[in-house]
């Protein structure tokens, strides 16, 4: 309505200033024109108000979009940083895996080379109950009791000493090999062996006899050797035939390359 009053004042002022006396008909036409302009003005005001409302709504929506954008951008930055960290960790793990694989490859090469050397050195005893094979990355030299000891004895006989001497000649050249001497028996009870109480005693004493021969007679560093008795509890043949029992009565000399490089790699993770 403000504009209507403004138009009325405007035309009133014009009429006064020009000292024009309007006829009723012209006066009525002028008022109609003012009303028309006033309605258009009100329409424009309503449109302006609607546009202002739309502008405010759009401003709020824009603010929300900006807020969402910042949140998404922060999430992307965090996710990107995490992805980069995971990628870096994966690369490190792959590098470590390659190092471990290379060390194990070298171990396998050394193990196979040692097996070949021992087979050549001990070739003359393989028909007498000696075998060389690889299990779980280690070389096993298995000697039946008849090759090393008289029945029920812990004293190594001459043929056994010859085999151990040939074995020691190879091991003295392989300083990076750890040596475990394991005594094994069958499951038959011991009778009349004096202070030897049972198969466990017999397996331990035979293992220490072999270890002493290798260290005292063949001068292998005692720090490299471990002697253990397994008794009857790790048979290689579960049968109860004379042949099966003979297989289980044995000395196994387990040779394993030192894996200090691998252990250091694992411990320094």
Automatic annotation (TrEMBL):
One Pfam family recorded for the sequence: OmpA
Domain OmpA-like: 136-259
Keywords per UniProt: Coiled coil, Membrane
Classification via InterPro entries: Bact_OuterMem_StrucFunc (IPR050330), OmpA-like (IPR006665), OmpA-like_sf (IPR036737)
Coiled coil: 27-120
CDD domains: OmpA_C-like
Name this protein carries in UniProt: OmpA family protein
